[in-house]
Structure formats: C-alpha cells, structure tokens
UniProtKB/TrEMBL annotation:
Keyword terms: Coiled coil
Coiled coil in keyword set: yes
Pfam families given in the database record: KDZ (PF18758)
InterPro entries, per the entry: KDZ
Name recorded for this polypeptide: Uncharacterized protein
Top-rank taxon, per record: Eukaryota
Coiled-coil residues: 136-201
Keyword Coiled coil among record annotations: yes
Amino acid sequence: MSRAAFAISIFHAFGHQWPCQVIYHPRKALGFGLSDGEGAERLWHSISRLIAYGRVAGFYVHMYNLDSQLNFANDEGLFKLGAWLRRKVLACEAKANEAEQTLADCGVAEEVLYSQWQAQIQAQTAPLPRQGRNKAKAAVEELLRLRKSKEMLREKVLHLRDLIIDPSTPNWDVAMLELELQSAKESLLKTENRVKKKERTLGASSTDAVWHLVNSAYLNKQMNALALLTRIRERLQSRKFELDCLECSYRKQRSDQRINEHTQDSVKRREPGIAALARKYNSYCVEMGRLIAQRKAPRNAIAPKTIDMDHLFSLDVDNDIWLDIGLGYDDIEGEAPLRWLRDDNRYLLGERKAMQEWFSEEWRIVATALNTNSRSVLYQLKIRQEQLLRLFVTWERAIVGVPMVENAELEWGPSEQDIIHARNELEAGNGIEYSDDNIYDVEFEAEADDLLTEHLDSLRIVQNYQDLNSLDSLQL
C-alpha cells in the first residue's frame, strides 16, 4: 500500500462528509485494520504549540524547531513502543471477539453483509441526477432499449425450455441448460421490473407507442424537476448536518470557535443557491400544472406540489419536499422490497420493545411524581397509576406468545402486588372487556380487509376509552 493511499484514508477519518467516508475511512476500507489516525492526530497535537511561534520565526528557525520537536517525539515514542504494542494487541483481541460475537448473534452470512455494504456504498456515492434539454428523448430511448432486451431474454428462455424438453438433448447438456435457464429467468424478471418502472415514469403502458413522447415538454420538465428536487434534498441534508455540529458545540476554544464561525458563514453563503433551486423547481411545477390543464401531458398526470419557501430550511419529517407525487414512481408491483424492509419479525420485536419501554417510562414518571404534598395532584396521579395498571393487565393477556428482544433486561415497572390487585378488579368486571384468545382466527386476519380491520380496531379503542372514563367518573 502506498503512503499516499494511507495518508488520504487516515486524514479522511472524521473530517469529511459521509459519502467520502464510506470509501476512504480506514475502518471501512480493506487493508487498514484498526488504523484510526491516532498517530497523525498525536503528531499534530505535539507540534501545535509551535504554531503561534512559527508565525513570527524565520524559515530556518522554524525548520530547526520542527526537526527538534519531531526528533524528541521519535525518541519518546521509542521508549513507549512496548506499552503501545501491548495496548494495541489487547484492543485488537477485544475488537475481534466483539465482531465475532456480533456476527454470530446477527445470523446473516458474511457474504450477504458484505454485498449489502457494497450496495450501500454504490447507492450513497451515486452521482446526483442532472438537468438537460433532451431528458425526455434519452428516457424514451432507454425504454425502447429495455423493451428490446426484454424480448430477447424472453426468446432465450423459450429456446432453453425447448432444448431441455427435447428428447435428443444429452443429459449432461440438460444440467447445464437448466442452470442457464435459471440465470436467464432472473435476468428477464429484473428487466421486466425495470421496464415497468420506466413505463410508470413516462406515463405509458406496455402496449403504447412512446415515440410521441420524445419531444414532450411535460416529460422533459418532469424529469428536470425530479433532478432538481433530488439536488435540493441533498443540499438541505448537508446543511442540516453542518448546523447540527454547530448546535452541539459548547465551551470551544478560540481556534474551534473560528472554525465554527467559518462553517456557519459558509452555510449562510450557500442558502441563496438552495433558494434559487427551490424557486426554479416551483416554476417547473407551475408549468407542469399549466400543461396538464392544456391537455398536453400524459394521461392521469398529476402536477407535483410546490415547495413552501417559508419552511424551506426546516427539513421536518412531514415536509412536502420528501414527496415525489407527479414525478414518477419507484415502487413496482410484484417487486421484492429491500432486504432491510422484508423482515417483519424484526419490526414486530421493535414494536414490542417500544411498547414496554413506553410503559416502564410512564410508570417510572408517575411513581416519581407521587412524592408530592399536593392532595389534588396526588389524586390525579393515583388515577393515572390505576389506568396504567388496567392497561398493563389488558396488554398482558393480548401479548402472550409474543417474543421479547434478546438480551433485554427491561422491566415493566409495577410490583407483583399491584398487578394482582388490577387483575382482580378486571375479573370482578370493573375493567375493560377484552376478547378471548380462542376467538382469534389466523385465516380471518390474513384475508380480512385492512381498512375494515382498522375501523373495527378504532371502534374498540373508543369503546375502551369510554369505559375508562365511565369508571373514573364512578370513582369520583
């Protein structure tokens, strides 16, 4: 490994943005081991005291001081080499054991994890889409090319099937043809999904001729608007990350304060550029709406929503800037979602953990707040505590059989005596009525309409809430 490659990765460790770190960070690159730039950081720190003096010293004096300081650091490091080596070996063994344990608990093959990481790098370092005058023409030509590839792959699959079922085909050739057929089917499926995605983006069906879309003004503006929106999101995210570093800095030294001031000034200088992109995007949206009104757009076209300039830099979760309505569709019917979206058990376990964490926190807060001398506040807190106990007993029977997250040591909060008292109240008919476990029908849950089930659950929650209020009024 060259010294230039090592130096680039070391100095990219923590100072650069995330797309740069995923490639050059030493902990994320092969061949660097546990290198973290500690030696370089210690070297800069050891000679940082010479910065102020070096500004007024002459060239030769400055070089003499640097050489003396570096020689002293080398001599000192030589005596500490044994302790440094022992510390690094112990740290290496601890990291290796931790990594092996994490991989064992994960249950996913290393090859799959590595392929997923490569996919992350490819996705996060992909160049942003650019605007162009011939975006519509390029998209139409790509769709035609994909359609042609789909037809060729379909013919190949049919040809391989004919060869496999042909009695004159040797057995050893049949085995090879079956492997080739499987690969051809996978390629055909991927190409069909890409064709569907491109057709949805262009607003065309599988039987439509798309040559009339080559000079479509609406399609050209739609693709340029999507490129602009992607670029605006990326710049707003970078701006937010930079401001987060400034908001988390307290009691900085003067040198660090200067860096923060420089970062804040650079962020403010980029704000007019982001606003100009947003205004240009809004103009595209207005023109697309006008073309839809003039019937110069594809069927069922929807004009995208404009960006609210007053809340452009807020970057909230529910901001309209995250919506791609009217700019194409990424989801394809029949296409498998990403791997991290397919594991329903992981999300259900997360919901189970979040439910218990919420309850334990609510119980802890109420128990802490009970240490008050105000009788009115104490009365309300007692009511809240009883509501939580009834909620716990209701949940207790419903989540029987639902597994808990491994290595979780979180407790619900109530004592065994409080739980038994709440159970007795429910058995006496003073609580919420809940359904019997034997009534649960797996087939009905699998085939039931989602909207109907959600509506029934909402009615049940409202009824339970009314029962709680009526019970509290009786206690008053």
